[in-house]
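Exercise: predict the structure of this protein bound to glycine.
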Amino acid sequence: MRDAEKITAEIEKRARARSHSPENSAFQKFIGEDWGERPAGPARAEVADYTPARRAKLGELFPEERLVFPAGIYKVRSNDTDYRFRAHSAFAHLTGLSAEQEPNAVLVLHPQKESSTSGNANNSTSGITHRAVLYFHPRTARTDAEFYNDPQYGEFWVGARLSKAEMSTLTGLEVKNITELEADLEKNLGKEVKNLRIIRRVDKNWEQKVAKLRSRFLPEIAEAESAEKDFQLEEAASELRLRKDAWEIAQMEAAIAATARGFQEIIKELPRARQHVRGERVVEGAFSARAREEGNGLGYETIAASGNHANTLHWIRNDGPVREDDLILIDAGIEIDSLYTADITRTLPVSGSFTPIQKKIYNAVLAAADAAFVRAGEPGVRFRDVHSAAMEVIIANLQNWGILPDGEAGEFARMQQYYRRWMPHGTSHHLGIDVHDCAQARREMYQEALLVPGMIFTIEPGLYFRADDLKVPPEFRGIGVRIEDDILVTESGVRRLSEFIPRSATAVENWIAEIQGNCLEERPENE
Ligand code: GLY
Ligand code: MN
Ligand code: MN
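Solution:
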């Protein structure tokens, strides 16, 4: 009987058996020779001027400890086909690497004595408390078999990779080969280096190696305590993103501008969507094309929810028709190459104009969004107050329409949160390199925190009346509306970064008329 390891090896070998590169030395010499000069490497990234401050701020919380931030590994979609690589957000934030960089890399903040910082101002790789080193798999020579036969790293398969020097220029970081990481993690562990922390659930390989090193060099720290300490690192990396720096704010503006153009593509395609049996897919596709053309891709799966589908909060199947008399709720965001994403929802009348009942519901949601925005701009406001302000307007409208009781019964209904039947989600979340950014932040830093300049969050109230909801008048049924904007807290109040994407019912109608008017004129008659 074969043991499990042999069986695994056999299965892996079979998966590679589709094609065999010759392994003889004559072939290897032949394929490795007579290649021209490589083009110049990348210039220093603009973000490299911002990442040192981020790393320094994080490092200060963990003096004398070694901190490990894996980028992550390829995730299998099926069999031997992977998803595109997308780095863990803490890694991307601390290195500034973008797009599909850099699978299997690891950033380490090595603790250092304060006295050794004098030379750091120039190379900007480090903070006061730590020295930052990026470990990755650099480009190998063309004479190396990897060049032509490694589908993960080989230049024949994935294009030219960066050398160590190029990666260092790009990021401003000290860079080492990933093969040096294991020995470096061990250095002075349990002596000057008092602890080793890693962000978990990103790269099992390094998580296991860190666990082994800890049990060998730091046996006094129990596993449960280590889990807690690792979580604190994840929490701190998440909280570090609560306030965006100037570069991040510019990225968010660019992501929102690209997303606005994506919505324009959708509006252009609405007439075709109406003709298509899966019109929602036409809408999704129009946005996706723009997301790939302009950015890294989608920040999250697009919700293209026409008619009653708008009442399914995460309607991402998008396989329904788009009917003339529907409202279509589109929640979509383009993630640009830096990995920052917008998160915008617009609810559009497919016909180009709202019916009176659609407009009534739309205006109630708009009023809730506006009330939340006004509250966000007041001094001394906490994050959770923004939601309360929106809900006050939602509740008042539900009462006006007779859907919720008022008076004493209304008080009871409010206490029991009956209104959540029609607005079941929160009004706001932080937004940035993740669509639900800073998700590991402590409650006191998030929901309970005062709004401070640099925060970026959504305001996204909605009202959802399901087609089979017998608690609402028949004319409300099958209508769902959400309006979502991205908000920046400034020194003087708040700014709606997505203000220029039409919001009011009239502005939305004009927007559709303008785009479809122009685009119909451009189209040949037979379309
Ligand atoms: N698109 C996800 C959200 O709005 O939170
Ligand atoms: Mn959102
Ligand atoms: Mn959204």
